[in-house]
């Protein structure tokens, strides 16, 4: 299933991602640091949603309470009960 998540508190504006059978299939950030967000997306493809959440939750960026990786973890948490 494909999802769209509006980010908050970071440079990227939204995250488009696909989850199938509890596994991340695709991740694309809109806005943000292009190279870093592409890297995050490539690294998590094929991973279990729960593993991505565990690894990326709580990462901050330049003193902010969140980051693009943390926003992805938050977005993925929203798929667990669906």
Walk me through the structure.
This protein has one domain (2-77): Enolase-like, domain 1. Strand 2 (12-20) and strand 3 form a beta hairpin. It contains 3 helices and 3 strands, in the order E-E-E-H-H-H. It has helices at residues 34-44, 49-56, 68-77; strands at residues 2-6, 12-20, 23-31. With 82 residues, the protein is α+β, with helices and mostly antiparallel strands. A 3-stranded antiparallel sheet has the order 1-2-3.
Number of helices: 3
**Within the CATH hierarchy, at the fold level, what is the topology?**
Enolase-like, domain 1
How much of the sequence lies in strands comes to: 25-35%
Q: What coarse outline follows from CA principal-axis ratios?
A: globular
Which helices and strands appear, and what pairs or packs with what?
Layout lengths: L1 E5 L5 E9 L2 E9 L2 H11 L4 H8 L11 H10 L5
Antiparallel strand pairs: 1-2, 2-3
Helix pairs in contact: 2-3
In brief, what are we looking at here?
The protein has 3 helices and 3 strands.
Attribute tags:
single chain; 82 residues; Enolase-like, domain 1; alpha+beta
């Amino acid at each position: 299933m494909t999802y769209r998540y509006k980010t908050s508190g970071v440079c990227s504006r939204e995250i488009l991602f696909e989850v199938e059978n509890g596994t991340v299939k695709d991740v694309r950030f809109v806005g943000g640091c292009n190279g870093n967000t592409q890297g995050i997306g490539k690294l998590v493809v094929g991973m279990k949603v729960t593993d991505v959440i565990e690894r990326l939750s709580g990462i901050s960026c330049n003193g902010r309470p969140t980051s693009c990786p943390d926003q992805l973890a938050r977005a993925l948490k929203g798929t667990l009960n669906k």
